[in-house]
Amino acid sequence: MAIPTTDEIRSRAAAALAACGADLDALTARQPGPAGSLPLRSPIDGGTFGQLPADSPDDIDATLDAAQQAFLAWRRVPAPERGQLVARWGRLLAEHKADLATLVTIEAGKTPSEAAGEVQEMIDICEFALGQSRQLYGRTMPSERPGHRLMETWHPLGVVGVISAFNFPVAVYSWNTALALVCGNAVVWKPSEKTLLSSLAADALLARAAREVGAPEGLNSVIAAGADGGRLLVDDPRVALLSATGSVRMGRAVGPRVAERFGKVLLELGGNNAAVVAPSADLELALRGVVFAAAGTAGQRCTTLRRLIVHKDISAELTDRIVAAYGTLGIGAPEQKGVLVGPLIDENSHQAMQNALKAAVEQGGEVLCGGSRVLADEAPDAWYVEPAVVRMPGQTEIVREETFAPILYVVEYEDLDEAIALNNEVPQGLSSAIFTSDLAEAERFIEGSDCGITNVNIGTSGAEIGGAFGGEKETGGGRESGSDAWRAYMRRATNTVNYSGELPLAQGVEFL
């Protein structure tokens, strides 16, 4: 299957970036400063097609200063007017959907359908946030004192820092940014170093929207930096809320450091997601849901299905059908016709997959299919793999770990209580699913799963923006996107208004 050359990839990236309002040649022609430079690489061929100067600590300090000043002006703009900024951004995203999706494909290796779906999430959250700009509701409560009004009001936090990962290079940013902006905050974004052009394009469209609606300069900014740049956001008291998406290891480092300065933190970390398949399940439905959730995006979604907990009476049949379906999956350059599985992001991901498969076999597992590297002759610097299915004797140590690659572990169960216990018996708690035609089973699973997302008769991937996204335990407890996730970007104040002309104290206290 033909792999495009590095020059072809650069040419396509330059055209897509230019359409969004940025110049690749100008960006890569700048001389690196004291912080050095960051490579622009595509996992499609593994080639590097440019270098981008990295922001220095002084650059980041100036960016945070500008954001703080922008916040002081933006917070005074009425929320419905702030909503017009994200509405305009959403329209620009819709206009440039194909351009931004092209950059996501080039940098993250997603198929065009998945890349376009990610940009559609951005458009959807802008529409949601526009409506939210008129619904930042507080409450009025009865006061125990006559002539008093007791109420809650919500106010902007300040500068919101966003640290995002490569696997959703633009959608997660938009979940945070659209809501943060309508809530009256400024946003400083440190994207993954692996997806800088997607980030710059998304930011350029937002900057254009900000100019067109007259929003203050500095309201949105991108930091091009490695881990050191992220640490500056973590430790800076000007960052009122830090929203960080990544590994559990990263969350363990970030959470305490932000807490030490009494900042707010929103963590979206690992997911070791499971689907239970009950005897009453529609196996055709389950098959389709399992294969997409497990093999889509080459297993590099936080909601990827990693554990299949299937009833022993149907395990052999369903597993055979999954293995057969895996044999039909097109693997290769994501924009080639018929491809459903693109590349892993880099060699480290491939090595992690091989290590996990070796550990699974050592722990009694049987690799039923997949795991091999493909297209190495055509693209020696890229990392394409066959998605793997591994039958396990139980939920062993390696099954309890999250490997960010397309490995599906199959474990059997006998009764639903056992299945729920297996679902919960991992440190992570992001997404879960059950396939069943039994209403009681579905309700028991919804009640029993300890995950932030619990689905019935769909897989673990593919959340809509209307619901809050996030998980429990080592997943971090944060919530982004829909529902009442906007509250994370605001502070609550309890207000008592005395219009009585008297001064009664609460609880009947008498003084003077």
UniProtKB/TrEMBL annotation:
Keyword vocabulary terms for this entry: NAD, Oxidoreductase
Pfam families listed in its UniProt record: Aldedh (PF00171)
Q: Which residues form the Aldehyde dehydrogenase domain?
A: 38-492
Q: Which InterPro entries match?
A: Ald_DH/histidinol_DH, Ald_DH_C, Ald_DH_CS_GLU, Ald_DH_N, Aldehyde_DH_dom, ALDH7A1-like
User: Please, which domain of life does this record's source organism belong to?
Assistant: Bacteria
A GO molecular-function annotation = aldehyde dehydrogenase (NAD+) activity
Q: What is its EC number?
A: 1.2.1.3
Subunit and partners = Homotetramer.
Active site location: 268
Protein name stated in the entry: aldehyde dehydrogenase (NAD(+))
The family annotation for this protein states: Belongs to the aldehyde dehydrogenase family.
What is the top EC class of this enzyme, as a single word? oxidoreductase
